[in-house]
UniProtKB/TrEMBL annotation:
Residues 354-369 have a biased composition (Basic and acidic residues). This is GDSL lipase/esterase. Residues 345-389 are annotated as: Disordered. The keyword Signal applies. InterPro entries: GDSL, GDSL_Est/Lipase, SGNH_hydro_sf. GO terms for molecular function: hydrolase activity, acting on ester bonds. It comes from the Eukaryota.
C-alpha cells in the first residue's frame, strides 16, 4: 500500500508539493484566546446544529452519535473554556466526506464543500442581525474528516491510493475557500484507527485480513494529511495549522481503556445504540439489559465512541491547544485534568431511574412497541456497518 501511494504521489503535482519543507507558520491561536470555533466534519463532530433555527447552540437539542455530547460540546461547556460557550458552531454531518464522489446509499452524502457553503451562507454573507461577528485572529477552524472517504473505498474493495490523489486537492480547494473567507487558524484531525472498531473486528472474523488492509488505508490517508498540515502555512500566508493525531490518541485509549473506567471496550449494547442522533439520550443512562451504564462503554455502537470518550478527547484537545502546552505534547488526560475541567454531574438514583424510563418510552418503545433485551456484546456486522460517520 505504501509503495502504491508513493507511486501515485509522484505522478500528482499537488502531492509532490507536500514533500517540500513548509515555511514558518504564524504562532497558533491559543485556546485561551479563542473566541469562536467552526467545526467541519462527520459524526465525530456533528451535533445536529441547524443554523436556520438560530445562532445560539445552547438553545438547540443535541443529536449526536455518542449518546451525549461530542468533544466540541464538552470543550465549550468546560469551566476552563467559558470563552467558547455559545460561540462554537458545528457544521459537521454524520456520514460526511471530503470528496462528494465518495458516496454511500444510506447516508446524506454531504461533502466538505457543502459544509463550507453553509458556513459562507450563514456566517459570512448572512444578513441576520444576530449573526456572530467573528474575527479571523480569534477564530479556530477545525476539520475532522476522512474516515468515511477511507471506509467507503475499503468497503467496495477499491484502493485508497488513487482516491487520496483525487481527494487532497479537493481538501486544499476548500482550505483556500476558507482562507479567502477569513480563516487563519486551522486544526486538522487525523482519522482514528477505524480498523479497531467492533464492527470491523467482527467482519474480520468472518472474512479475514480485513483489519490490516483497512489499517493500511487509514495509515496512507493520515500520512498525506500530516504532510498537508505542514504545507498550509506555506501555501496560505498568515495562517497556522495544528495537527491533532487522533489515530495515536485513540489507539492508546483502546489499549488503556480500563484505566479510564471503560468496563466494556470491545462491544456495544444495541439498546443504547438505538438512541443514535436522538435528542433525548441522557448521558447517565443505565439499562440493566446492557450490563453497565452507558458511560462505562467505550463504543456507543459498532463504529462510534460514547460521549465518555469524547469527554477525554475534549480534555486532550484543550491540553494541546493551550498556550501552556509544549508543541510535542499529546497524551491522554490525567484524572486531575478531567475532574477539574470536565466534571461529571452525577444525578441521584431516583433521577437515573426516571431518565431510563423516559428513554424506554421515547426511544425504545417508539420504535417497535416494546424494548427487546439484547446481549451487551452484540456485534452483528450487518447491523451498523452502513451507518458510518
Amino acid at each position: 500500500m505504501q509503495g502504491c501511494l508513493q507511486e501515485h504521489a509522484r505522478s500528482a503535482g499537488f502531492l509532490i508539493l507536500l514533500l517540500a519543507l513548509a515555511g514558518r507558520a504564524s504562532a497558533f491561536l491559543a485556546l485561551e484566546d479563542t473566541r469562536h470555533w467552526f467545526a467541519f466534519g462527520d459524526s465525530w463532530s456533528a451535533t445536529g446544529y441547524d443554523e436556520s433555527r438560530g445562532y445560539k447552540t445552547s438553545l438547540q437539542p443535541l443529536k449526536t452519535s455518542s449518546g451525549g455530547r461530542t468533544w466540541l460540546e464538552h470543550l465549550s461547556s468546560s469551566p476552563a473554556c467559558t470563552n467558547l460557550y455559545d460561540t462554537q458552531h458545528s457544521l459537521a454531518v454524520g456520514g460526511a466526506t471530503v470528496w462528494s464522489g465518495a458516496r454511500a446509499a444510506t447516508l446524506p452524502n454531504v461533502s466538505l464543500s457543502d459544509q463550507v457553503d453553509r458556513f459562507e451562507q450563514w456566517f459570512v454573507t448572512g444578513t441576520k442581525p444576530t449573526r456572530p461577528r467573528w474575527r479571523p485572529s480569534s477564530t479556530v477552524f477545525s476539520i475532522f474528516l476522512g474516515t468515511n472517504d477511507v471506509a467507503f473505498r475499503w468497503w467496495t474493495g477499491e484502493s485508497i491510493a488513487p482516491h487520496v490523489q483525487v481527494t487532497f486537492p479537493i481538501f486544499d480547494a476548500q482550505i483556500e475557500r476558507l482562507y479567502k473567507l477569513g480563516a487563519r487558524n486551522f486544526v486538522l484531525f487525523t482519522i482514528p484507527p477505524y480498523e479497531r472498531a467492533p464492527v470491523v473486528v467482527a467482519v474480520n472474523r468472518i472474512v479475514g485480513d480485513v483489519r490490516p488492509k483497512l489499517g493500511a488505508s487509514v495509515a496512507a490517508w493520515n500520512a498525506v494529511l500530516r504532510l498537508y498540515a505542514l504545507e498550509i502555512p506555506r501555501r496560505y500566508p498568515g495562517t497556522s495549522a495544528k495537527l491533532f493525531d487522533t489515530w495515536a490518541w485513540f489507539d492508546e485509549l483502546l489499549d488503556r481503556a480500563d484505566e479510564y473506567g471503560f468496563l466494556n471496550s470491545r462491544g456495544w449494547c444495541p439498546l443504547y445504540a438505538r438512541g443514535l442522533y436522538s435528542p433525548v439520550v441522557p448521558e447517565q443512562l443505565n439499562l440493566d439489559e446492557c450490563g453497565v451504564p452507558l458511560e462505562q462503554y467505550l463504543w456507543y455502537d459498532g463504529v462510534h465512541p460514547t460521549w465518555a470518550v469524547h469527554r477525554l478527547l475534549a480534555a486532550s484537545v484543550r491540553q494541546q491547544l493551550s498556550r501552556k502546552t509544549s508543541e510535542s505534547q499529546l497524551a491522554l488526560p490525567s484524572q486531575a485534568e478531567l475532574e477539574a475541567n470536565f466534571p461529571i454531574v452525577q444525578g441521584s438514583e431516583e433521577e437515573k431511574e426516571e431518565t431510563a424510563k423516559e428513554y424506554r418510552r421515547t426511544v425504545l418503545a417508539k420504535e417497535d412497541g416494546a424494548p427487546q433485551p439484547a446481549p451487551a456484546g452484540h456485534s452483528d456486522p450487518a447491523t451498523l456497518f452502513p451507518v458510518l460517520g
